[in-house]
Each structure stands twice: as C-alpha cells, then as structure tokens.
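Request: Not sure, any thoughts?
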Amino acid sequence: MAERQRPWPFSDKPREECGVVGVYSPRNRAARLAFFGLFALQHRGQESAGIASSNGQFLRVHTDMGLVAQAFREDTLEHLTADMAIGHTRYSTTGSSTLANAQPFVVSGVNGQLALGHNGNLVNALALRKKLQSEWGVSFSTSSDSEVLAYLLANASGETWEDRLAYVMRNAQGAYSAVVQTRDVVIGIKDPLGVRPLCLGRLSSGGWIVASESCALDHVGAEYVRELEPAEAVIIDRNGMRSFIWDGRDQRRALCVFELIYFARPDTQIDGSQVYSARRAMGAKLAREQPAEGDVVIGIPDSATAAAMGYAAEIGIPYSDGLIKNRYVGRTFIQPDQSLRELDVQLKFNPMPDVIQGKRLIVVDDSIVRGTTTPRVVRLLRRAGAKEIHMRVCAPPIRWSCHFGVDMATRRELIAANMTVEEIRQFIGVDSLGYLSEGGLLDVVSGKSNGFCHACFSGNYPIPIQLEMDKLVLERSGEFID
C-alpha cells in the first residue's frame, strides 16, 4: 500500500489521535447530541467522522470523509434518530485515510452485531488479527487495528458484557478508549493503563454521555461526573448506568502526558483539573528552568498560548500576541499551487510588526517534533523585524516514537533523536533554545494523575514494545492487509 500523504499544510506537531462519544438519551436525541459532541472534539481528528445509532432493534450508521460539519446534514441526523448513539472523528494512525477506514465500524460475531469507535493503538493488533482469522474465520475489510478490536469484542467469550470486556482487557495490549453500540447497550471502555482519556457525564434529560474530553459534555449541556478509571467500562442502557472494573489490572497508570501539553482543548478537565491551568503552570516552570532576557513573550498559537502567558507572568516580561493564526488553513480540499506551498507558514501565521519590530522576543512553543516548520516561523519573525529570538519549549525533547495512538514520526524523523540542543538551535536559527526538563514537566502534572506515559521523552514505554514492528510499516508493506 502506498504511504499515506500528510495533510497540507505540513505541521511540525504530533497529529491528534481520534475523538469518541457515546450517548444514551431517552428523548431520541442521541445522534444529534453525538454530533455536537463530535463537533467539540474536532481538534482530535479531521479526516473522517461517523455516527452509529440504535433504536433498540437494529443499528444504523453513517460515515463520511472530512470534518464533522462536512460529514453530516440535517437529513442524515434525522435518519439516525434513536435514543442510543456513538460517534467518532478520526485522524489515522494505523490504517489509511480512506472511507473504508472511517469509524464507527459495524461488525458481527457470536455476540451479535455491534459498532465501535476507537481512540488509541493496539500494539499486538497483528497477532490478534491472525488469532481472529484462524479461530473465528473473521474476514477483515480494512487495515485498521480498530476493526481488530471490534471483532475481538464481538467474538469475546463470556455470558455477560462484563465477562466479554474482561476477555478483551486480558487480550488487547496498548491504548484504547472506545465506545461501543449494540442493539440495546452503549459501552465506554478504557484500557488498563488509561493511556487515552474518557470521561462520563450526566444529561439533564436523565441520560448519560461518555466522551474523550469534558468539553464535549459542556457543548451538550451535560454535567461532568468523572474521568473513567483505567480498566473501567461503563455499560449504559434503559435501566441506567453500571460500572465494571477488570480485576486483572495492576495499579499503574499511564495517561498520555501530551494530552495536557497539546492534544486536549484548554477548557477540558482531566481528573478534575483544567488543562489551561496545567499549561500555564508548565510555562511558569519553564521560565524558572530556562529564563531569558527579552522585551516581550509571545506564544505559537493556539496550543502554546497558555504556556506563554505563564512564562511571561513568572519572569515579569509582558505577554503579547505576536502571531495571528488562520484557523481555517488546511480545512479545505482545495490544494495550493507550488508558489503558495512555499508560503505555507505565511498562510498559517501572520506576524504583528508593532509587537515584533526591534524587539527581543521570547517565543514559547509546546513542542518541536521534526523541526520542519519551526525554522520557517523563525524566518517569518526575523523578516517582521525581531532583534533577537529566544525559543522556549514547554515539553522536553521528543526522542522516541509513540506506539499508543499518536502520529509522532519515526525516530529518524525526530530532530531531538538526531541532534543535540545546540545543533537544533543552529538548525532552527534562534539566538537561544531551552526545553522544559522531564522532571520539571512531571513536577507540574504530578497532581493531575497517579502516572503518565512519557515514553516519547524517556523511551520508557509502559508496556514492552517491539519498535521495529511499527504497524504503519506493516501496512505500507502490505503485510497488514488480507
């Protein structure tokens, strides 16, 4: 299979994973609520979107490519009218960006028909795929590990959903926050390490909602209840909600720390704390660890804005908006010609000369992944008249790939895996460069959860990983396809 092309404009950022939502609403508004929940989670995936609903007798599903607002129309939602629904918005990490890989997947097995939407990555997907093919005769139609997870649950042993969920948690390795729709049940599942977020909310109508982030609950007027525990599933039907926690879990937690650094919306709560506050605290810690002399602090919008404000407040230098972001660049299917491609940073950011001209800038960013975009931003600031540029990054150097659902690039593409900090400084063209330390980051976030996955900084993965068995490589070589 040919390599999936990266979206334009090319971004020097980790690519968002996926967003999921599951709804039970006794007023037959589940699909509509799922739509608005997905709308709030659009930042987590922009390639495809889908909703599956159930009226208690059979499932209906609609998927399409593009943004949530492009994938659904009023007549589509009317067709999906029911009191139960799940939704998914996708950025592909395993599996090509095609309509066939759009979720939710609808599959059938010994446990009947179900639809599944998945955020994360199964590191043993190939082994599970072969097991399902040999033992159950499953015929796969996509290259996605999410289809593997769907068939695993559809064929899981056990008389009850609790038994089947325990079977899945014993066998599936990796990251999975997932929503499941059967004929009469909505299920939200979090993996035993809790790598990907999933929270629970209560609807004013008496129903329930689960979603990747609490901002989705806010958009539909739901009350935030709590974050699901690792190895927990909530099972929701017309009789209410019940919780199941697999007793085979250990006490480790490994929430992806990049949820707090970059992925989650600033207004999202994770374990009861707002992401915005965590990012401001990261900026303040960065200022203590990596101070710089300057006239003004600016952030790379939008994800580094809170950290830049925290940095400025801590060091006592004014904060200002030095770059204005065009938030709609890349949200169109119209491709630029070559001359415009060469101006990709200018199409995405526009500098504020009154803020920049003749100033010593302290520029705060959330991360530098490949180092492809940062030099262009630096040149843009230089052309706008910056006297000095001191880059500060509120994440440690990214030296290792992610295998749990984030398109973080391979090690040979990661600039910090191949250059020293001084070499990176010279390459991106700044006067000084400083990163938040790993210890400093963990000091800031330690009160938000009992544990985090920070393998992209440290190389210490929470479960054993065969690095050479990257499923993207398998897919591209054709080994992952029937």
